[in-house]
Write a structure and sequence with these properties.
This protein has 308 residues and is of the alpha/beta class. It has helices at residues 16-27, 47-57, 71-82, 101-111, 127-143, 160-167, 176-182, 206-218, 223-253, 260-293, and strands spanning 3-9, 34-40, 61-66, 87-90, 115-120, 152-159, 187-192, 300-303. β2, α2 (47-57) and β3 (61-66) form a beta-alpha-beta unit.
Protein backbone atom coordinates (compact mmCIF):
# COMPACT_ATOMS: atom_id res chain seq x y z
CA UNK A 1 0.00 0.00 0.00
CA UNK A 2 1.21 3.48 -0.93
CA UNK A 3 0.52 5.70 2.10
CA UNK A 4 0.34 9.50 2.07
CA UNK A 5 0.47 11.33 5.41
CA UNK A 6 -0.93 14.88 5.47
CA UNK A 7 0.24 17.11 8.32
CA UNK A 8 -1.14 20.68 8.65
CA UNK A 9 1.38 22.89 10.49
CA UNK A 10 0.84 26.29 12.06
CA UNK A 11 3.58 27.74 14.30
CA UNK A 12 4.99 24.29 15.14
CA UNK A 13 8.68 25.27 15.10
CA UNK A 14 9.23 23.92 18.62
CA UNK A 15 7.98 20.40 17.89
CA UNK A 16 8.12 19.73 14.14
CA UNK A 17 11.61 18.17 14.14
CA UNK A 18 10.70 15.73 16.90
CA UNK A 19 7.45 14.92 15.11
CA UNK A 20 9.25 14.21 11.82
CA UNK A 21 11.71 11.95 13.61
CA UNK A 22 9.01 9.91 15.37
CA UNK A 23 6.85 9.68 12.24
CA UNK A 24 9.78 8.58 10.07
CA UNK A 25 10.64 5.84 12.59
CA UNK A 26 7.10 4.47 12.32
CA UNK A 27 6.94 4.71 8.53
CA UNK A 28 10.21 2.80 8.23
CA UNK A 29 8.50 -0.22 9.80
CA UNK A 30 5.69 -0.27 7.24
CA UNK A 31 5.66 -2.25 4.03
CA UNK A 32 5.13 -0.30 0.84
CA UNK A 33 5.91 3.24 -0.25
CA UNK A 34 5.19 6.25 1.97
CA UNK A 35 5.16 10.00 1.52
CA UNK A 36 4.66 12.81 4.02
CA UNK A 37 3.11 16.13 2.99
CA UNK A 38 3.80 18.92 5.48
CA UNK A 39 1.54 21.94 4.94
CA UNK A 40 2.68 25.28 6.34
CA UNK A 41 -0.49 27.27 6.99
CA UNK A 42 1.08 30.74 6.91
CA UNK A 43 3.11 30.29 10.11
CA UNK A 44 4.59 33.39 11.71
CA UNK A 45 7.52 31.61 13.38
CA UNK A 46 10.31 29.52 11.87
CA UNK A 47 8.11 26.57 10.90
CA UNK A 48 8.67 27.02 7.16
CA UNK A 49 12.46 27.04 7.58
CA UNK A 50 12.25 23.84 9.58
CA UNK A 51 10.07 22.23 6.87
CA UNK A 52 12.64 23.15 4.23
CA UNK A 53 15.38 21.48 6.28
CA UNK A 54 13.28 18.39 7.01
CA UNK A 55 12.40 17.80 3.36
CA UNK A 56 16.05 18.17 2.36
CA UNK A 57 17.17 15.65 4.97
CA UNK A 58 14.39 13.07 4.74
CA UNK A 59 13.46 11.33 1.46
CA UNK A 60 9.72 11.02 0.99
CA UNK A 61 8.96 14.21 2.90
CA UNK A 62 7.50 17.13 0.93
CA UNK A 63 6.11 20.49 1.98
CA UNK A 64 3.62 23.09 0.79
CA UNK A 65 3.60 26.66 2.03
CA UNK A 66 0.31 28.53 1.71
CA UNK A 67 0.25 32.22 0.83
CA UNK A 68 -1.32 33.09 4.21
CA UNK A 69 -3.11 31.46 7.11
CA UNK A 70 -6.20 29.82 5.61
CA UNK A 71 -7.08 27.87 8.74
CA UNK A 72 -6.74 24.18 9.43
CA UNK A 73 -9.53 23.23 7.03
CA UNK A 74 -7.75 24.92 4.11
CA UNK A 75 -4.35 23.48 5.04
CA UNK A 76 -5.77 20.00 5.41
CA UNK A 77 -7.54 20.24 2.07
CA UNK A 78 -4.34 21.43 0.36
CA UNK A 79 -2.49 18.38 1.64
CA UNK A 80 -5.29 15.99 0.68
CA UNK A 81 -5.25 17.29 -2.88
CA UNK A 82 -1.50 16.53 -3.01
CA UNK A 83 -1.79 13.02 -1.62
CA UNK A 84 -1.00 10.37 -4.22
CA UNK A 85 -1.34 7.28 -2.07
CA UNK A 86 -3.78 4.38 -2.04
CA UNK A 87 -4.50 5.49 1.53
CA UNK A 88 -4.16 8.95 3.08
CA UNK A 89 -3.62 9.64 6.78
CA UNK A 90 -4.31 13.01 8.43
CA UNK A 91 -2.60 13.95 11.68
CA UNK A 92 -1.44 16.98 13.68
CA UNK A 93 2.19 17.94 14.15
CA UNK A 94 2.02 18.54 17.93
CA UNK A 95 2.30 14.79 18.74
CA UNK A 96 -1.13 14.70 20.32
CA UNK A 97 -1.78 12.24 17.50
CA UNK A 98 0.73 9.45 18.33
CA UNK A 99 2.44 8.22 15.11
CA UNK A 100 2.67 4.58 16.33
CA UNK A 101 -1.13 4.35 16.10
CA UNK A 102 -0.79 4.39 12.31
CA UNK A 103 0.27 0.73 12.36
CA UNK A 104 -2.98 -0.45 13.95
CA UNK A 105 -5.05 1.97 11.86
CA UNK A 106 -3.57 0.74 8.57
CA UNK A 107 -4.08 -2.89 9.58
CA UNK A 108 -7.74 -2.14 10.22
CA UNK A 109 -8.08 -0.25 6.93
CA UNK A 110 -6.67 -3.18 4.98
CA UNK A 111 -9.01 -5.63 6.68
CA UNK A 112 -12.44 -4.28 5.83
CA UNK A 113 -12.80 -0.51 6.26
CA UNK A 114 -12.74 2.63 4.11
CA UNK A 115 -12.09 4.95 7.07
CA UNK A 116 -10.26 4.28 10.31
CA UNK A 117 -10.52 6.93 13.01
CA UNK A 118 -8.37 7.39 16.12
CA UNK A 119 -10.74 8.12 19.02
CA UNK A 120 -9.21 9.59 22.17
CA UNK A 121 -10.56 9.53 25.69
CA UNK A 122 -10.93 12.54 28.00
CA UNK A 123 -8.22 11.61 30.50
CA UNK A 124 -6.27 14.72 31.49
CA UNK A 125 -8.88 17.20 30.27
CA UNK A 126 -10.14 19.78 32.74
CA UNK A 127 -13.38 18.60 34.33
CA UNK A 128 -15.35 21.58 33.04
CA UNK A 129 -14.02 21.12 29.51
CA UNK A 130 -14.89 17.41 29.53
CA UNK A 131 -18.44 18.15 30.67
CA UNK A 132 -18.88 20.89 28.07
CA UNK A 133 -17.54 18.57 25.34
CA UNK A 134 -19.98 15.80 26.22
CA UNK A 135 -22.90 18.24 26.30
CA UNK A 136 -21.76 19.69 22.98
CA UNK A 137 -21.77 16.31 21.23
CA UNK A 138 -25.18 15.41 22.64
CA UNK A 139 -26.63 18.73 21.49
CA UNK A 140 -25.01 18.67 18.06
CA UNK A 141 -25.99 15.08 17.33
CA UNK A 142 -29.58 16.01 18.13
CA UNK A 143 -29.51 18.81 15.56
CA UNK A 144 -27.39 17.75 12.59
CA UNK A 145 -28.10 15.11 9.96
CA UNK A 146 -24.94 13.04 10.60
CA UNK A 147 -23.49 11.62 13.79
CA UNK A 148 -20.26 12.93 15.34
CA UNK A 149 -18.30 10.64 17.67
CA UNK A 150 -17.03 12.15 20.90
CA UNK A 151 -13.22 12.06 20.85
CA UNK A 152 -13.01 11.38 17.10
CA UNK A 153 -11.09 14.21 15.44
CA UNK A 154 -9.10 14.68 12.25
CA UNK A 155 -6.62 11.87 13.04
CA UNK A 156 -7.76 9.18 10.61
CA UNK A 157 -6.78 7.11 7.59
CA UNK A 158 -8.92 7.18 4.43
CA UNK A 159 -8.94 4.81 1.50
CA UNK A 160 -8.55 6.34 -1.96
CA UNK A 161 -12.25 5.82 -2.61
CA UNK A 162 -13.25 7.65 0.56
CA UNK A 163 -10.77 10.44 -0.18
CA UNK A 164 -12.10 10.93 -3.71
CA UNK A 165 -15.63 11.20 -2.29
CA UNK A 166 -14.44 13.80 0.21
CA UNK A 167 -12.61 15.87 -2.42
CA UNK A 168 -15.66 15.79 -4.70
CA UNK A 169 -17.41 18.15 -2.26
CA UNK A 170 -16.21 21.61 -3.22
CA UNK A 171 -18.20 23.67 -0.72
CA UNK A 172 -16.53 26.78 0.66
CA UNK A 173 -17.74 26.38 4.25
CA UNK A 174 -16.04 23.16 5.26
CA UNK A 175 -16.55 21.35 8.55
CA UNK A 176 -14.39 18.28 8.13
CA UNK A 177 -15.74 16.28 11.05
CA UNK A 178 -19.17 16.46 9.50
CA UNK A 179 -17.87 15.80 5.98
CA UNK A 180 -16.04 12.68 7.13
CA UNK A 181 -19.28 11.41 8.65
CA UNK A 182 -21.39 12.49 5.66
CA UNK A 183 -19.49 10.49 3.04
CA UNK A 184 -20.27 7.34 5.02
CA UNK A 185 -18.40 4.15 4.06
CA UNK A 186 -17.58 1.53 6.64
CA UNK A 187 -15.68 3.14 9.52
CA UNK A 188 -13.51 1.51 12.17
CA UNK A 189 -12.12 3.03 15.37
CA UNK A 190 -8.88 2.76 17.30
CA UNK A 191 -9.10 4.05 20.86
CA UNK A 192 -6.16 5.73 22.59
CA UNK A 193 -5.34 7.67 25.73
CA UNK A 194 -5.34 11.44 25.58
CA UNK A 195 -1.85 12.86 24.96
CA UNK A 196 -0.64 16.33 25.90
CA UNK A 197 1.10 18.59 23.40
CA UNK A 198 4.82 17.85 23.15
CA UNK A 199 5.67 21.57 23.04
CA UNK A 200 4.09 24.96 22.57
CA UNK A 201 0.49 25.93 23.21
CA UNK A 202 -2.76 25.37 21.39
CA UNK A 203 -3.67 28.15 18.96
CA UNK A 204 -7.39 27.55 19.51
CA UNK A 205 -9.04 30.29 21.59
CA UNK A 206 -12.40 29.95 23.34
CA UNK A 207 -13.97 32.21 20.71
CA UNK A 208 -12.64 30.00 17.89
CA UNK A 209 -13.98 26.89 19.62
CA UNK A 210 -17.37 28.59 20.01
CA UNK A 211 -17.41 29.58 16.33
CA UNK A 212 -16.38 26.02 15.43
CA UNK A 213 -19.37 24.75 17.40
CA UNK A 214 -21.68 27.06 15.46
CA UNK A 215 -20.17 25.79 12.18
CA UNK A 216 -20.94 22.21 13.20
CA UNK A 217 -24.62 23.05 13.61
CA UNK A 218 -25.08 25.36 10.62
CA UNK A 219 -23.08 23.35 8.06
CA UNK A 220 -25.23 20.23 7.89
CA UNK A 221 -28.86 21.15 8.25
CA UNK A 222 -31.48 23.90 8.30
CA UNK A 223 -32.96 22.90 11.66
CA UNK A 224 -32.04 26.22 13.35
CA UNK A 225 -34.28 27.97 10.80
CA UNK A 226 -37.08 25.51 11.51
CA UNK A 227 -36.47 26.05 15.23
CA UNK A 228 -36.92 29.80 14.69
CA UNK A 229 -40.41 29.11 13.29
CA UNK A 230 -41.30 26.93 16.27
CA UNK A 231 -40.04 29.51 18.76
CA UNK A 232 -41.98 32.25 16.98
CA UNK A 233 -45.18 30.19 17.10
CA UNK A 234 -44.59 29.42 20.79
CA UNK A 235 -44.11 33.11 21.63
CA UNK A 236 -47.26 33.97 19.67
CA UNK A 237 -49.23 31.35 21.56
CA UNK A 238 -47.93 32.66 24.89
CA UNK A 239 -48.89 36.21 23.87
CA UNK A 240 -52.42 35.11 22.95
CA UNK A 241 -52.84 33.23 26.24
CA UNK A 242 -51.45 36.16 28.21
CA UNK A 243 -53.73 38.59 26.35
CA UNK A 244 -56.73 36.41 27.17
CA UNK A 245 -55.71 36.27 30.82
CA UNK A 246 -55.38 40.08 31.00
CA UNK A 247 -58.82 40.48 29.39
CA UNK A 248 -60.50 38.07 31.81
CA UNK A 249 -58.68 39.60 34.78
CA UNK A 250 -59.82 43.09 33.72
CA UNK A 251 -63.45 41.96 33.43
CA UNK A 252 -63.42 40.20 36.82
CA UNK A 253 -61.34 42.63 38.88
CA UNK A 254 -61.65 45.81 36.90
CA UNK A 255 -59.03 47.74 34.97
CA UNK A 256 -55.69 48.07 36.73
CA UNK A 257 -52.43 49.81 35.84
CA UNK A 258 -50.32 47.32 33.83
CA UNK A 259 -47.09 46.13 35.42
CA UNK A 260 -43.96 48.05 34.45
CA UNK A 261 -41.67 45.07 35.06
CA UNK A 262 -43.78 42.79 32.85
CA UNK A 263 -43.67 45.33 30.02
CA UNK A 264 -39.90 45.84 30.19
CA UNK A 265 -39.19 42.11 30.41
CA UNK A 266 -41.41 41.44 27.40
CA UNK A 267 -39.80 44.18 25.30
CA UNK A 268 -36.23 43.23 26.18
CA UNK A 269 -36.86 39.49 25.94
CA UNK A 270 -38.61 39.64 22.58
CA UNK A 271 -36.04 42.11 21.25
CA UNK A 272 -33.21 39.74 22.20
CA UNK A 273 -35.04 36.79 20.66
CA UNK A 274 -35.49 38.70 17.39
CA UNK A 275 -31.77 39.52 17.28
CA UNK A 276 -30.87 35.86 17.80
CA UNK A 277 -33.23 34.72 15.07
CA UNK A 278 -31.93 37.39 12.69
CA UNK A 279 -28.39 36.18 13.48
CA UNK A 280 -29.34 32.60 12.56
CA UNK A 281 -30.83 33.76 9.27
CA UNK A 282 -27.77 35.95 8.67
CA UNK A 283 -25.44 32.97 9.17
CA UNK A 284 -27.19 31.04 6.41
CA UNK A 285 -27.27 34.05 4.09
CA UNK A 286 -23.58 34.70 4.71
CA UNK A 287 -22.72 31.13 3.80
CA UNK A 288 -24.73 31.34 0.61
CA UNK A 289 -22.88 34.59 -0.20
CA UNK A 290 -19.49 32.93 0.26
CA UNK A 291 -20.51 29.91 -1.82
CA UNK A 292 -21.48 32.13 -4.76
CA UNK A 293 -18.02 33.71 -4.85
CA UNK A 294 -16.40 30.31 -5.57
CA UNK A 295 -13.02 31.44 -4.27
CA UNK A 296 -10.29 28.80 -3.91
CA UNK A 297 -9.95 27.19 -0.50
CA UNK A 298 -6.21 27.94 -0.39
CA UNK A 299 -3.35 29.42 -2.41
CA UNK A 300 0.11 27.84 -2.52
CA UNK A 301 3.12 30.14 -2.33
CA UNK A 302 5.95 27.62 -2.31
CA UNK A 303 6.53 23.87 -2.47
CA UNK A 304 9.49 21.55 -2.07
CA UNK A 305 9.06 20.60 -5.74
CA UNK A 306 9.77 24.15 -6.94
CA UNK A 307 13.07 24.52 -8.85
CA UNK A 308 15.88 25.85 -6.66
Amino acid sequence: MFLSVVVPCFNEEAVIDRFAEELAAVLDTLEGECEVILVDDGSSDGTLDRLRDITRQRPGFRYLSLSRNFGKEGAMLAGLHEGRGDAVAIMDADLQHPPPLLVAMLALLQSAYEQVVARRDRVGDARLRAIVSRLYYRMVNGLIDVRLEDGAGDFRVLSRRALDALLAMGEANRFSKGLFAWIGFRTGYVNYRNVARAAGQSTWSMRQLFDYGIDSVISFNSKPLRLAIHVGLLITAIAVVYGGWVLVDGIVHGNRVPGYVTLICAVVGLGGLQMVLLGVIGEYLGRIYLETKQRPHFLVRETSDDPA
